UniProtKB/TrEMBL annotation:
Protein name in the entry: Response regulator
UniProt cross-references to InterPro entries, sorted A to Z: Bact_response_regulator (IPR050595), CheY-like_superfamily (IPR011006), Sig_transdc_resp-reg_receiver (IPR001789)
Keywords assigned: Phosphoprotein
Domain Response regulatory: start-end pairs: 8-122
SUPFAM superfamilies membership: CheY-like
Record flagged with keyword Nucleotide-binding: no
Protein origin, superkingdom: Bacteria
Pfam families from the UniProt entry: Response_reg (PF00072)
PANTHER family given in the database record: CHEMOTAXIS TWO-COMPONENT RESPONSE REGULATOR (PTHR44591:SF25), STRESS RESPONSE REGULATOR PROTEIN 1 (PTHR44591)
Sites bearing 4-aspartylphosphate, chain numbering: 57
Amino acid sequence: MTSQARRVIAVVDDDPGVRASLRFLLETAGHVVETYDSGVRFLAEADPARIACLVLDQQMPSLAGLDLLARLRAAGVTTPALLIVSTPAAAVARRAAQLGVRQVLEKPLAQDDLLARIAAATAA
């Protein structure tokens, strides 16, 4: 696999404004970005082997971020993941830890923190 292919950051969020903002931020930082408006669409269209890091929104209709990640983990996908939440909750944090989420990030996102977390996740 080429280093270019491994640099893909997948953003899965149902909010078009968040997707656009994160795409702009990450592309400006030099990442290749793919965005998906739902976990269902990610499962249908994405090639997990190309993804270096997942940025998942927890609150999405049909398939929440952690539910998507659970399906990926069950399929053997070990891609590093960051989870975005509106309100932190202990149960979400526990499940995120069980699924190997690198960091739970609370909205509004601090840009520098997000970029640093992605850099750390993709460095391994």
